[in-house]
C-alpha cells in the first residue's frame, strides 16, 4: 500500500443492509464523486486492497468492500471522514436473512464475493450466529479504533431517520433542498455489483 497521501476522502464503513446505498446517493447529491461497492484487488484466497484506479478517481466510497481496509485507508488518507451506518441488531439480522443474495449457493458467487463476505461476516451466506458475532465485532472494532479521534467518525442510523442534518454537520456542508435519498430498501443494485465482479475475474 502506498503511504503519505494528503488527500482526505470519505469512507462509509457500515455493514450491508444498513443504508450504505442511500449514503452513497446522498454523498453524490452533496457533490462528492462516490464509488459504491468499489472493486478489490484479489489473488486466490486473498483480498489485497481497493483498486488504485478507484482510490485515485473518487472522493467517497461506501459498502462492505471498504470494511477490511478502513484502518489502512485512514493511514493512507490522513484526515479522512468515516461514516458508520448501523441499525438495531435484531432488525438488521432479519433484513439480512430475507436478503436473497445472502442465500445464493456457493457456485453462483464470484470468489471475490465469497472471500469478502467470509472475511467480514465469517461466512459467505447468511448464518444468524455468525452474522450476529460479525455485527458485534465490527461495532466494537469501530468504536475502539475511533475512541481517540472521534472527530473523524459519524455514527448514523439512516433506517431510523437520521438523514441530512447529522451528515451535513459532519461534513460541514449546507443541507440541500431535496429529500434524503432512499435506496435499496427491498430491491437493490447487487446484481450490478455481481456482474462487475464476474467481469473482473
Describe the structure.
- The protein is an alpha/beta fold.
- Helix content is 40%, strand content 13%.
- The protein has one domain: Rossmann fold (3-Layer(aba) Sandwich).
- It has helices at residues 20-29, 52-57, 70-76, 89-98, 111-121, 128-145, 164-171, 190-200; strands at 10-12, 34-36, 40-43, 46-50, 60-62, 81-85, 153-156.
Task: Give a short overview.
The protein has 201 residues and is an alpha/beta fold.
Q: Could you name the key traits of this structure?
A:
five-stranded parallel sheet, disordered N terminus, 201 residues, Rossmann fold, single chain, 13% strand, two-stranded antiparallel ribbon, 8 helices, alpha/beta
- The backbone outline, from C-alpha atoms, is globular
CATH topology title: Rossmann fold
What's the name of the CATH homologous superfamily?
Answer: P-loop containing nucleotide triphosphate hydrolases
Main β sheet profile: 5 strands, parallel
Total number of domains = 1
**CATH class annotation:** Alpha Beta
Low-confidence stretches: 1-5, 187-193, 195-201
Strand order, sheet with most strands: 2-5-1-6-7
State Rg: 16 Å
Q: CA-to-CA gap between the ends?
A: 22 Å
Strand content: 5-15%
Structural class: alpha/beta
Total strands: 7
Q: State the helicity in percent bands.
A: 40-55%
Total number of helical segments? Answer: 8
Overall average residue pLDDT: 90
Order of H and E elements? EHEEEHEHEHHHEHH
